[in-house]
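Work Package 4 report. The design task specified in the project plan requires that, given a folded chain encoded as structure tokens, an amino acid be chosen for each position. We show below one input record used in the internal validation round.
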């Protein structure tokens, strides 16, 4: 398995309305429920007027396209990081999974994953 480290800072926030989000910002995940509109985006692209905001995240993604029949990939990564007392925030696309950790734990997380046989790609 290969993990690609993302070389930018991320923010997890809530916004009042989807129209407040620049969907062309290069990296964003939007979750809309009856209760909230959540957004994960590059920190420098965070919309004005968020209703809640937490900066200081870094991320990495599982390299390649993951087949839906694969089992336990995210669980394996989460388990390795849990053993190191590193909390995660995970989001998924159709093709792969992204794992966010607080910035102060980023290098420790990558080191732990590498120590457990996962190849780390830094761009």
């Amino acid at each position: 398995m290969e993990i690609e480290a993302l070389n930018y800072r991320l923010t997890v926030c809530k916004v009042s309305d989807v129209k407040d989000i620049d969907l062309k910002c290069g990296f964003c995940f939007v979750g809309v429920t009856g209760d909230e509109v959540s957004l994960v985006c590059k920190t420098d692209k965070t919309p004005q007027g968020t209703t809640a905001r937490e900066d200081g995240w870094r991320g990495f993604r599982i390299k390649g396209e993951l087949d839906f029949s694969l089992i336990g990939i995210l669980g394996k990564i989460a388990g390795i990081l849990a053993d190191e007392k590193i909390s995660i925030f995970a989001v998924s696309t159709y093709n792969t999974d992204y794992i966010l950790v607080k910035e102060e734990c980023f290098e420790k997380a990558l080191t732990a994953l590498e120590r457990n046989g996962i190849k780390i790609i830094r761009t």
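The longest helix spans residues 73-83. Validation will be extended to a larger panel in the next phase.
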